[in-house]
Design brief:
By secondary structure, this protein is α+β, with helices and mostly antiparallel strands. About 60% of the residues lie in helices and about 10% in strands. The chain contains seven helices and seven strands, in the order ααααβαββαββαββ. It has helices at about 5-45, 65-120, 140-190, 195-225, 235-250, 270-285, 340-350; strands at about 230-235, 255-260, 265-270, 295-300, 305-310, 350-355, 365-370. It has a five-stranded mixed beta sheet with strand order 2-4-5-7-6. It has a two-stranded antiparallel sheet with strand order 1-3. Strand 6 and strand 7 form a beta hairpin. Helix 4 (about 195-225) packs parallel to helix 7 (about 340-350). The two termini are about 60 Å apart.
């Protein structure tokens, strides 16, 4: 039998002591009650039977009443003493048995806790795939083990997402840095004076891309951390302001803009909500086609909907677009963080994001934010 460590054995000893203490108390109460009832029964007895070897056995008929009463009292006392002695011995034996049984029962009851503790001690970033997988009746301990396994599932998913995020972020940051280093080391060294403005513009474009990427990462980290404040806001007014800031880009791209903004009261962080709508509109403008359209609507169903025309999104790719650095094409100046930031902000507000890809192309994004 495998013994638990001192800290765990202490709990096992306490449980054993509790079981044994309860048995001792109930045993003593039972012994006391039996003794009282037996004594009461002997006190009310009027018939006295003497053994043949008892004193006065041959001359019992000639005994006086006082002698008979004294003899009866003595026999009752001897019987009660024998009863008490035998009962105490039996109680002592059962107490020893109860301690042994209590130790075994406590060890068996604590075995799942030992399994949970051993699994928790083995866990690390490299072994988050392990699970307890406790088998047994559906009781409190199995519920605890299942809850711990569910927690491990969430932690494993979070660690995997973090690994992918770090790897993608490293790749995205490394690309503009490599371009800048090549332009500085190679092109500037061989550049003619008339080439300097063009190289300067390329470096500025690369720098702007890095800046947008860093801002996106910071926004994503801020929204993942949760909300620092909540206040009433109208998502329709926030959407109107965000669309107003994007009107020059919409006009430059030659897109049609359709608005249907009805009052939509919500509770949250207006700055992050503005970022959410702005990212959706920028995404709708960036991934569009010449002569296409952008539609923004807030309705009584409690949702913000942004619809845009654009290339056909392959089936099964819509959910992946919500992941960081996921995009259908490497062309363009986007970093692939827009929709992931939208999802993160919506989740921080307790909301959801749904993507639908129409068969004729484009994307429909529906965001719900609780009131």
């Amino acid at each position: 039998m495998r013994f638990l460590r001192p800290a765990q054995r202490s709990l096992r000893l306490r449980l054993t002591a509790l079981y044994s203490g309860l048995f001792s108390v109930t045993g003593l109460l039972l012994l006391g009650l039996t003794y009282l009832l037996f004594r009461e029964r002997l006190t009310g007895t009027t018939v006295l039977v003497l053994p043949k070897d008892a004193p006065y056995a041959d001359t019992a008929p000639s005994l006086s009443k006082s002698q008979i009463a004294a003899l009866a009292q003595r026999l009752r006392a001897d019987a009660l003493d024998q009863l008490l002695l035998m009962s105490l011995l039996a109680l002592l034996v059962m107490l020893v048995v109860s301690v042994a049984l209590g130790w075994l029962v406590a060890g068996r009851a604590l075995r799942p806790l030992h399994t949970i503790a051993a699994t928790a001690q083995r866990l690390s970033a490299a072994t988050l795939h392990e699970r307890i997988g406790l088998i047994g009746p559906d009781d409190e301990l199995k519920n605890l083990a299942d809850t711990f396994d569910a927690l491990l599932d969430r932690l494993h998913a979070a660690f995997e997402a973090q690994r992918r995020f770090v790897a993608n972020a490293s790749h995205e940051l490394r690309t503009p840095l490599a371009v800048q280093r090549a332009a500085i080391q190679i092109r500037l060294g061989r550049a003619r004076p008339e080439d300097l403005p063009r190289i300067q513009e390329e470096l500025l474009d690369t720098n702007r891309r890095s800046e947008r990427l860093i801002e996106g990462l910071l926004t994503l980290a801020t929204s993942d951390r949760g909300l620092d404040r909540r206040e009433p806001a109208d998502l329709a007014l926030i959407a109107a302001e965000a669309v107003g800031q994007s009107r020059p880009a919409i006009h430059t791209a030659g897109l049609r803009l359709a608005l249907d903004l009805r009052p939509l009261p919500v509770t949250g962080d207006p700055v992050l909500l503005h970022q959410l709508v702005g990212n959706l509109v920028q995404n709708a403008v960036r991934h569009n086609v010449p002569g296409g359209s952008v539609e923004v609507a807030t309705g009584p169903d409690g949702a913000l909907t942004v619809r845009n025309t654009g290339p056909v999104v392959p089936p099964g790719e819509t959910d992946g677009l919500l992941e960081p650095f996921r995009r259908l094409s490497r062309s363009g100046d986007g970093a692939g963080l827009g929709l992931s930031i939208v999802r993160s902000i919506a989740q921080a507000h307790g909301g959801t994001v749904g993507l639908t890809a129409p068969a004729d192309g484009g994307l429909v994004v529906r965001v719900t934010v609780p009131v």
